[in-house]
Amino acid sequence: MVGCFARSLAGHDQGTVYIVIEETDRFVLVADGRIRTIEHPKRKNRKHIQLTAVRGRMENNEAIKHSIKEFLRRTTDV
User: Fold this and answer.
1) Which three-class secondary structure state does DSSP give residue 69?
2) Binning pLDDT at 50, 70 and 90, where does residue 75 land?
3) Closest CA to 19 of 31, 1, 7
4) Mean of the pLDDT values across residues 18-25?
5) Tag placement on the chain: N or C end, fewer CB within 10 Å?
6) Percent of residues, the chain, with pLDDT higher than 70
7) CB count, 10 Å around CB of 5?
8) Per-residue pLDDT tens digits for 29-59
9) Rounded CA gap, 55 and 60, in Å?
10) CB burial class (10 A; 0-12, 13-18, 19+) of residue 76?
């Protein structure tokens, strides 16, 4: 699951796309490279995210931003 794209289903950030950078039993840590960086990830309940099978690059914050931008471009161009 680490490296997969995840869309927030609940909370004030509903609809936001993140990349999963770490997982625990009940929670995942996600980052978007802008507001939620690798250094300060957001903790989300597993029930409140929708995972995709697609993986993104997560070497640094710039790679995360670029991966999310490309993912959104591919999914909305259908």
Assistant:
1) helix
2) confident
3) 31
4) 95
5) C
6) 97
7) 22
8) 999 999 999 999 999 999 999 999 999 999 9
9) 15
10) exposed
Angstrom CA distances, 48 to 1, 16, 68, stand at: 15, 11, 19
All structural domains of the chain: 4-76 (2.30.30.30)
Separate counts of helices (H) and strands (E) for the chain: 1, 5
Q: Which residues partner with 31 through β-bridges? A: 19
The pLDDT value recorded for residue 76 is 82
Taking the C-alpha atoms of residue 69 and residue 12, their distance in angstroms, rounded to an integer, is 21
